[in-house]
Design brief:
The chain has one domain. By secondary structure, the chain is an all-alpha fold. The longest helix is centred in the first third of the chain and has 36 residues. The two termini are 22 Å apart. The relative contact order is 0.17. The protein is elongated and about 45 Å long. Helix 1 runs antiparallel to helix 2. It comes from Streptomyces kunmingensis. This is Antitoxin. Pfam families: MT0933_antitox (PF14013).
């Protein structure tokens, strides 16, 4: 089971490294969509969540050996 989790982590790192810019752009689009659907009532929270997710993807891509 540990090997399966390690393989999953390695795959996530590979994807983040190769496609981090696309993932980041997708997160931005999703954030904008949700912000639009909530009429901007939660913009600050949505922006913060998108920023954290984008940072995580960036760090995950950097972890690749």
């Amino acid at each position: 089971m540990f090997d399966a989790l390690k393989n999953l982590k390695d795959k996530a790192e590979d994807l983040a490294e190769e496609h981090g810019d696309k993932i980041s752009g997708g997160l931005e689009k999703v954030g904008n969509f949700i912000d639009d659907k909530t009429d901007g009532k939660h913009s600050d929270k949505i922006d913060a969540a998108v920023d954290k997710a984008q940072d995580y993807v960036g760090k995950l891509g950097e972890q690749k050996d």
